[in-house]
């Protein structure tokens, strides 16, 4: 708990004055004001986060948290639990979609076992930080103990701090865990007033009958656990997942160190909700990479006050949206550095 508390205390609002100065610089470049749209917003926000009017191109690290979910025993997923460790091995061998997209973006991929229900082999890419062999079945009681939830958050903080020490200046969050759309739906529905049906999607591709069953299981979990609305750790412990907790830790550590973090899809946004409930200023350091096809994602982003800048009809997770968004972040930063001003280019400005 000490590491978590220290991290929360270090998070402060980003520098709105530097953000304004960056936007003024952008407005003086050879283009009509606002004509680069979201790219301008990205550049100015990263300036406010880093405190640099002209932010440098950062080293990129995508952190993929892996953990299993006891609620899979209720039949909420189209895939069995053993797919989680199988996919982790796929990540380690470089064959998953996230591997391809991270390589394309020039980002380091770090895989963290924070709660896989199996033992995994040693590997240079893998960080072994297992808190438990998966969560308990939240349809029958809390998914985790409070201590486990905090330990998983602190695992994420530790991973992020290590990456920052190694020079990381931009994070992407991702995950792997069969059953984690169920946990994410429970968290999102809870913070949206309990409307499970509106927030629940097909996850790995369940049919209509299993979708109805999934909704009933989540409603049961909410009724059985009754989390305390003002206690984010309680919500996380009762409804969440170890990998969700780990991603929340990465986000908190990034904010505490003034490093921007790209939030992936629905699962990552559930982690972002937990992080934001622990310290609302953390959202200043987040950028929403894309809008997932999962119906609860838009609701989660609205609660966070974030607008996604890609809409690709994706729902894979793993951090794939963040890897696709990284080149857009780099493009925004290059605009700030490489575009000529009206004065430099000898171009007349438009009328005020």
Automatic annotation (TrEMBL):
> Which GO biological process annotations does it have?
cobalamin biosynthetic process
Catalytic activity of the protein: 5,6-dimethylbenzimidazole + nicotinate beta-D-ribonucleotide = alpha-ribazole 5'-phosphate + nicotinate + H(+)
Tell me the domain of life: Bacteria
Q: What class of enzyme is it?
A: transferase
Q: Any idea of its EC number?
A: 2.4.2.21
A GO term, aspect molecular function: nicotinate-nucleotide-dimethylbenzimidazole phosphoribosyltransferase activity
The record's annotation in Gene3D superfamilies points to: 1.10.1610.10, 3.40.50.10210
Q: Point out the coiled-coil segments of this chain.
A: none
The active site lies at: 318 (proton acceptor)
What UniProt keywords are attached to this protein's entry?
A: Cobalamin biosynthesis, Glycosyltransferase, Transferase
The pathway this protein participates in, as annotated, is:
Nucleoside biosynthesis; alpha-ribazole biosynthesis; alpha-ribazole from 5,6-dimethylbenzimidazole: step 1/2
Pfam hit, one: DBI_PRT
CDD domains linked: DMB-PRT_CobT
Q: Which residues cross the membrane?
A: none
State the protein's purpose.
Catalyzes the synthesis of alpha-ribazole-5'-phosphate from nicotinate mononucleotide (NAMN) and 5,6-dimethylbenzimidazole (DMB).
Identify the NCBIfam families for this entry.
cobT_DBIPRT (TIGR03160), PRK00105.1 (NF000996)
As for family, the record states:
Belongs to the CobT family.
Give the protein name, as stated in the record: Nicotinate-nucleotide--dimethylbenzimidazole phosphoribosyltransferase
Per the UniProt record, the source organism is Dethiobacter alkaliphilus AHT 1
């Amino acid at each position: 708990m000490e590491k978590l508390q220290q991290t929360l205390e270090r998070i402060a609002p980003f520098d709105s004055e530097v953000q304004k100065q960056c936007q003024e610089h952008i407005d003086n470049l050879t283009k009509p004001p606002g004509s680069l749209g979201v790219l301008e917003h990205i550049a100015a926000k990263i300036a406010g986060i880093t405190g640099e009017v002209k932010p440098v191109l950062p080293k990129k690290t995508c952190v993929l948290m892996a953990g299993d979910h006891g609620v899979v025993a209720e039949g909420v997923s189209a895939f069995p639990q053993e797919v989680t460790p199988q996919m982790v091995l796929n990540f380690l061998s470089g064959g998953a979609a996230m591997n391809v997209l991270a390589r394309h973006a020039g980002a380091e991929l770090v895989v963290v076992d924070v709660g896989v229900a199996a033992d995994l082999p040693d590997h240079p890419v893998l960080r072994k930080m297992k808190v438990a062999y998966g969560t308990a079945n939240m349809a029958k009681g809390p998914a985790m103990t409070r201590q486990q939830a905090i330990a998983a958050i602190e695992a994420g903080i530790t991973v992020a701090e290590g990456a920052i020490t190694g020079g990381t200046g931009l994070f992407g969050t991702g995950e792997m865990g069969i059953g984690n759309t169920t946990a994410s739906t429970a968290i999102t529905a809870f913070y949206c007033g309990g409307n499970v049906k509106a927030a629940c999607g097909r996850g790995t591709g369940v049919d209509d009958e299993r979708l109805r069953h999934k909704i009933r299981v989540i409603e049961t979990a909410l009724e059985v656990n009754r989390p305390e609305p003002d206690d984010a750790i309680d919500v996380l412990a009762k409804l969440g997942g170890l990998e969700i907790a780990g991603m929340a830790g990465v986000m908190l550590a990034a904010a505490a160190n003034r490093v921007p973090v790209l939030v992936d899809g629905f699962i990552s946004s559930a982690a972002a909700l937990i992080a934001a409930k622990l310290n609302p200023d953390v959202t200043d350091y987040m950028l929403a990479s894309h809008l997932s096809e999962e119906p609860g994602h838009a609701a989660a982003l609205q609660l966070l006050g974030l607008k996604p800048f890609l809409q690709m009809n994706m729902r894979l997770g793993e951090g794939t949206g963040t890897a696709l968004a990284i080149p857009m972040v780099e493009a925004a930063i290059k605009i700030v550095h490489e575009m000529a001003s009206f004065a430099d280019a000898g171009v007349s400005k438009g009328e005020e």
